[in-house]
């Protein structure tokens, strides 16, 4: 993730080292009730990568065209990766029926009728599972610190 975001292997290695150093120093603040260790580490890594990217942008190396490029407003690939992991973690915490229904309808783009036929349940049950599944997912995301 760091190498892909920073486009520099050496800087990415520095980011990983700094991530683990910060995690070690802040280990007493980690709360497994709020998020998984993976999500917590990636949040730290995201901050480290942002810091290093800003540092590199402030002092670009000669001939480094990527360092001279100004990212578009709202362009934050790391945010998208972290958000995906948080959603994945939240999906693991809801019931199997709700999780399967959300995945079938939203990620696999299947109709209610297709999902109902696949799971051998009425279409109304699929709609109900989706409604309550999304509600459970929202609550779970709020518990792990999700912000809109």
What can you see in these coordinates?
The protein has 148 residues and is mainly α. The chain has helices at residues 2-6, 9-25, 37-58, 65-68, 77-92, 96-107, 112-119, 123-143. Helix 7 packs across helix 8 (123-143). The longest helix has 22 residues, at 37-58. It is elongated, with a radius of gyration of 20 Å. Mean pLDDT is 82; it is low at 65-72.
Question: Which terms summarize this structure?
Answer:
Rna Polymerase Sigma Factor, Chain: A; 148 residues; 2 domains; Arc Repressor Mutant, subunit A; mainly alpha; single chain
Topology overview:
Layout: H1 2-6, H2 9-25, H3 37-58, H4 65-68, H5 77-92, H6 96-107, H7 112-119, H8 123-143
Helix pairs in contact: 2-3, 3-5, 6-8, 7-8
**C-alpha termini separation:** 22 Å
CATH fold-level name of the largest domain: Rna Polymerase Sigma Factor, Chain: A
What shape does the CA trace take?
elongated
Beta-strand fraction estimate: under 5%
Number of helices: 8
CATH class of the largest domain: Mainly Alpha
Derived structural class: mainly alpha
**SSE arrangement, N to C:** HHHHHHHH
Radius of gyration: 20 Å
Strand runs, count: 0
Instruction: Summarize model confidence as the mean pLDDT.
Output: 82
Which ranges are low-confidence, i.e. pLDDT below 50, for 5 or more consecutive residues? 65-72
Count of structural domains:
2
Summarize the structure.
The chain has helices at about 1-5, 10-25, 35-60, 65-70, 75-90, 95-105, 110-120, 125-145.
């Amino acid at each position: 993730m760091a190498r892909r975001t920073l486009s520099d292997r050496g800087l990415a290695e520095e980011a990983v080292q700094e991530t683990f150093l910060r995690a070690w120093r802040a280990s007493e603040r980690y709360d497994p009730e709020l998020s998984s260790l993976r999500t917590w580490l990636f949040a730290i890594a995201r901050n480290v990568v942002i810091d290093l990217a800003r540092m590199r942008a402030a002092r670009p190396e000669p001939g480094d065209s990527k360092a001279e490029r100004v990212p578009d407003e709202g362009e934050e690939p790391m945010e998208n990766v972290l958000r995906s992991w948080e959603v994945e973690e939240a999906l693991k915490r809801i019931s199997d029926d709700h999780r399967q229904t959300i995945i079938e309808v939203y990620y696999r783009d299947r109709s209610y009728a297709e999902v109902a036929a696949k799971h051998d349940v009425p279409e109304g049950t699929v709609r109900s599972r989706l409604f309550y599944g999304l509600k459970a997912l929202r609550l779970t995301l709020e518990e792990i610190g999700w912000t809109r």
